[in-house]
């Protein structure tokens, strides 16, 4: 695997392993003959899912602040000894002032927007805000302590000094990390532009001057009149080519840069591009500075739901915690299944299949092999049917109980999948004689979130093969409904009811 040819020639020699694992799979055959070298060259090429993992570090920074502020408060109480902090007089004179201080400090840091990667503050201003927040929180805690008696001041001053120093050091470390990520291009949104227009060229020029946007390519549905490159950025094809282009997993925003006077053309392109999992922005007017500033300040492709990254962070923590416990609990069962498969039929224990993940990223999904090895169908060109002659004896059991899906816990822990989400379909999966993705215009909307081991559609009866257009449409509707409603509690409910629902459905073909 490698980056698009117009980018690969500028990849630093120090990062080939990172690039080869993350860049566009197979490039694109229509770019193979191109020799242009685009002007946007991030140090490391990662797809939207991997770059969003970097973005979620903001929540880890905040968790570190909470741990440091609360831990130092407990240390200050412990160092002072009696009276015990749990005694009534201890609570009033010692714990209450520290609660005010910790809560005030963390609140000030949050309202100061210090956990955002928008580059709004310089590093010195950022650290000054941390020190000021520490001083104000200490003063507030001291005021409460003084009002309760001189004894209440005992833990406040040492806590305030230690917390301010510790959080200043933590934020300094965080700033150095974010500066490195920004240099690598990991915090700059990746953009593709539809429309080789003057407004698009102005946007590219502005992005080159500021280096806060990565513009990967231009698409234009009037190729006969389009240049081979626009301001150094290659024209990769027409608007229709973008719908299935291998660059999509790396794209955070699709920008439609068509002259607003061409109303019917704008509406037609917007309607076609809305089927993509990538957010669409329409560039209206010629103020490239304002538009680029808005794009560079926007979030990367939202991983988890059409909400902010907080929900994505909670979902990822949920996957890691529950997934780790699930792996430990399932390990003996997985070992028995592996032995049974080995004894039942010749061939490998695991079956690997390329499927679509978040933002149409191609991922390799793991399953226990349930079919005869010679009859393996990696593209799902023939979907499973009742009494399918390809399924082995052990395969019938593990498919009926969905135990063949257990190895996907590894996909969850590596971040390619989630415990709950739309089930990943094989790339090129067919319903009848037609590729399933072509039957429903909103099919790609399923990829606006990471695929899951189970999901809303699965517990609502839409699981296994889909043999008609109506079944594909219902699957997509349920998946999109889940994406819009996703929350921690909904995910937990789906996980709780998955096993009884699957085991109770004897009619499903799996």
In words, what does this structure look like?
The chain has 510 residues and is of the alpha/beta class. Helix content is 48%, strand content 10%. The protein is built from 17 helices and 12 strands. It has a 6-stranded mixed sheet with strand order 3-4-2-1-5-6, sandwiched between helices. Strands 7-8 form a two-stranded antiparallel ribbon. A two-stranded parallel sheet has the order 9-12. α8 packs across α11 (288-296). Residues 1-37 and 301-307 have low confidence and may be disordered.
Provide the descriptors you would attach to this structure in a database record.
12 strands, Rossmann fold, two-stranded antiparallel sheet, 17 helices, 6-stranded mixed β-sheet, alpha/beta
What are the SSEs and their pairings?
Layout lengths: L4 H4 L7 H7 L25 H8 L1 H24 L7 H24 L11 H26 L7 H29 L5 E5 L3 H13 L3 E6 L9 E2 L2 E5 L1 H4 L10 E4 L6 H11 L6 E3 L5 H9 L12 H36 L5 E7 L5 E7 L24 H8 L7 H6 L4 E3 L9 E2 L2 E2 L16 E3 L1 H4 L9 H17 L2 H17 L6
Parallel strand pairs: 1-2, 1-5, 2-4, 5-6, 9-12
Antiparallel strand pairs: 3-4, 7-8, 10-11
């Amino acid at each position: 695997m490698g980056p698009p040819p117009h980018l690969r020639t500028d990849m630093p020699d120090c990062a080939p392993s990172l690039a080869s694992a993350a860049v566009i799979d197979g490039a694109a055959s229509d770019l193979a003959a191109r020799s242009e070298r685009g002007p946007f060259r991030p140090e490391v090429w990662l797809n939207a899912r991997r770059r969003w993992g970097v973005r979620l570090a903001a929540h880890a920074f905040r968790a570190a602040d909470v741990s440091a502020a609360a831990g130092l408060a407990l240390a200050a109480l412990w160092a002072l000894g009696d009276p015990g902090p749990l005694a009534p007089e201890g609570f009033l004179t010692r714990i209450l002032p520290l609660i005010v201080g910790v809560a005030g400090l963390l609140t000030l840091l949050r309202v100061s927007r210090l956990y955002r990667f928008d580059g709004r503050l310089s590093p010195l201003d950022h650290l000054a805000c941390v020190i000021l927040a520490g001083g104000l929180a200490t003063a507030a805690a001291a005021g409460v302590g003084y009002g309760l008696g001189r004894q209440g001041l005992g833990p406040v001053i040492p806590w305030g000094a230690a917390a301010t120093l510790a959080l200043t050091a933590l934020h300094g470390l965080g700033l150095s990390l974010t500066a490195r990520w920004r240099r690598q291009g990991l915090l700059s949104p990746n953009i593709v532009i539809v429309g080789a227009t003057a407004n698009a060229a102005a946007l590219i020029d502005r992005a080159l001057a500021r280096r806060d946007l990565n513009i990967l390519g231009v698409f234009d549905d009037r190729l006969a009149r389009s240049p081979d490159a626009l301001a150094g950025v290659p024209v990769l094809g027409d608007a229709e080519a973008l719908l299935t282009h291998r660059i999509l997993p790396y794209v955070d925003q699709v920008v439609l840069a068509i002259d607003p006077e061409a109303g019917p053309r704008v509406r037609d392109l917007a309607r076609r591009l809305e089927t993509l999992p990538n957010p669409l922005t329409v560039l209206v007017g010629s103020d490239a500075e304002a538009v680029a500033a808005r794009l560079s300040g926007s979030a990367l492709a939202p991983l988890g739901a059409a909400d902010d990254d907080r929900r994505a962070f909670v979902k990822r923590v949920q996957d890691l915690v529950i997934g780790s416990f699930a792996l430990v609990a399932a390990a003996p069962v997985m070992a028995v299944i592996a032995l049974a498969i080995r004894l039942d039929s010749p061939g490998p224990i695991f079956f690997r299949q390329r499927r679509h993940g978040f933002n149409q990223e191609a991922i390799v999904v793991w399953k226990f092999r349930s079919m005869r090895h010679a009859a393996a169908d990696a593209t799902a060109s023939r979907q499973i049917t009742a009494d399918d002659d390809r399924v082995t004896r052990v395969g019938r059991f593990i498919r009926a109980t969905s135990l063949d899906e257990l190895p996907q816990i590894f996909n969850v822990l590596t971040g390619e999948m989630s415990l709950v989400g739309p089930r990943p379909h094989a790339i090129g999966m067919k319903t009848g004689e037609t590729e399933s993705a072509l039957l429903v215009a909103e099919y790609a909307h399923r990829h606006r979130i990471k695929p899951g081991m189970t999901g809303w559609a699965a517990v609502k009866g839409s699981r296994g093969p889909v043999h008609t257009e109506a079944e594909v449409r219902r699957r997509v509707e349920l998946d999109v409904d889940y994406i819009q409603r996703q929350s921690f509690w909904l995910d937990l409910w789906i996980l709780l009811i998955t096993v009884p629902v699957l085991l109770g459905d004897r009619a499903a073909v799996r």
